[in-house]
Request: fold
Amino acid sequence: MHKTKDQLYEFIKDLKKKDEFDAEIRNVQEDFDFLIDEDTTALLIVDELGRNKHNTFKINEMEPGSECTIFGEITHISTERIFNRKNGSKGRVINLEIKDDTSKCNLALWDKDVDLVKKKKIKIGTKLKIVNGYVKDGFSGIEMNVGRWGAIEIEPDDIPEFKNKTDDDKITGKIKEIQPTRAFFKDSGEFGFVTNITIQTDTKIKKLTVWDEKVKEIQKFKPGDRIEIKNYTIKENNDHSEIYINSKTTMVRV
Reply:
């Protein structure tokens, strides 16, 4: 649940008087042309003062249905998509990939936040802090959304240093099985496609889920082919990991 400005003030009442806090909220709102509400503005102020640490997570700790703050670096940006809402209005969304030193996930930016990408304020390599985003299961893995109660900080001063990981985006092995393609309807009303494949690596058998345009690409391969897969997405569940092949993934014979 999101916190109101009065609840957030409890985190910093030893630092600021209530009238000072309210005045600062109004000043920040003016700077943003009143595009953000009081509660979100209060969250930004509290976060800048270092008092919003209680819900900061690593990406591999996120759970669907939760609200949390994460740090990460943008590694992939998809194209903007315009869609029709049920009330007849048009919406905009752009999907990105963000990673830290534990894992990576999808990041969905909606409507006005799309302009951060269009205006090049967010690009590949940009480091972000997503404050109070909400987590859901997406079509290609776990997904962080910046909604009404969340905020984005670009190149924040308090971002941690990420440890380098070696060869963590590569699977090499022999295809054992390619299952038949399945079609489904997305929330947008568009068709989606999915299939599953099984890869025998040097150490274990891995099952992977293949999405949308990559479903057509995987048909170029056949069981017995040795394949190298890079830039896949891992979705962490309580007791196991699921591997997804989506638009940014590369697949080549080796």
Q: What stands out?
A: The chain has a mean pLDDT of 84. The CA atoms of residues 221 and 249 lie 15 Å apart.
